[in-house]
Amino acid sequence: MIPHDDAALQWSLSGGGLTESPAAELETLFHETVARHYELTDEARRDDAVIYREIFSPAFESPVVKPHMSSHEVTAPLASHVFPQAWKNGVWNVYQPLSFDLKQGGTIRNKAHRWESLTRFLSKSPEHPKIHLLLGAPSGEQRKDYATAEDVLHASPGIVMIEEDEAADFARELESRVKAAYGAPAIRS
């Protein structure tokens, strides 16, 4: 009734054995039965939330910037998206962290195509937002796939891409733009 394969329960007599290195044997058994299933997935090494928290959040946590930031939903005829950080100075400036620190190159390219398509639709919103993509580069060997992803994203009109190594400059520029739009923050005692 149950086929003999890796996906089915199999009943057998209890077995046993001796080993000189129980830790090494346990590690081997773990990789053969559990870890191999996780290694096939394409989970991010650093996901979007980690890219934001570890790299870009200081820009948004500045005392000058923070009071003017909120989430904002951009709605277009064929798409909508809630951006976690946004502010308005005549036009909505919206910010989306994107991690491309993925294990497989194909997934990096697919994510770029998905976001290029979404930003293209969102740029047709009546409010014409200025979309900023906060990019996290791969920490593995997928540099060529990442370069392709950047080229794909550049094809979308009206977006600004900020690389993680540009985070400090981005923070200074954002603070300067917010100061220019709203003036210096009120000093609280």
Can you offer a commentary on this structure?
- This protein is α/β, with parallel strands linked by helices.
- The chain has one domain: Trna Endonuclease, Chain: A, domain 1.
- The chain is built from five helices and five strands; from the N terminus they run ααβββαβαβα.
- It has helices at 22-39, 48-61, 105-122, 143-154, 167-182; strands at 70-75, 80-88, 92-99, 130-136, 159-163.
- The protein has a five-stranded mixed sheet.
- A hairpin with a 3-residue loop joins strand 2 and strand 3 (92-99).
- Helix 2 crosses helix 5 and helix 3 (105-122) runs parallel beside helix 4.
- It is elongated and about 75 Å long.
- Mean pLDDT is 85; it is low at 38-42.
Short recap of the structure:
The protein has 189 residues and is of the alpha/beta class. 41% of the residues lie in helices and 19% in strands.
Question: Can you tag this structure with a few keywords?
Answer:
single chain, elongated, 5 strands, alpha/beta, 41% helix, Trna Endonuclease, Chain: A, domain 1, 189 residues, 5-stranded mixed β-sheet
Q: What is the CATH topology assignment?
A: Trna Endonuclease, Chain: A, domain 1
Oligomer: single chain
Structural class: alpha/beta
Give unreliable regions as ranges: 38-42
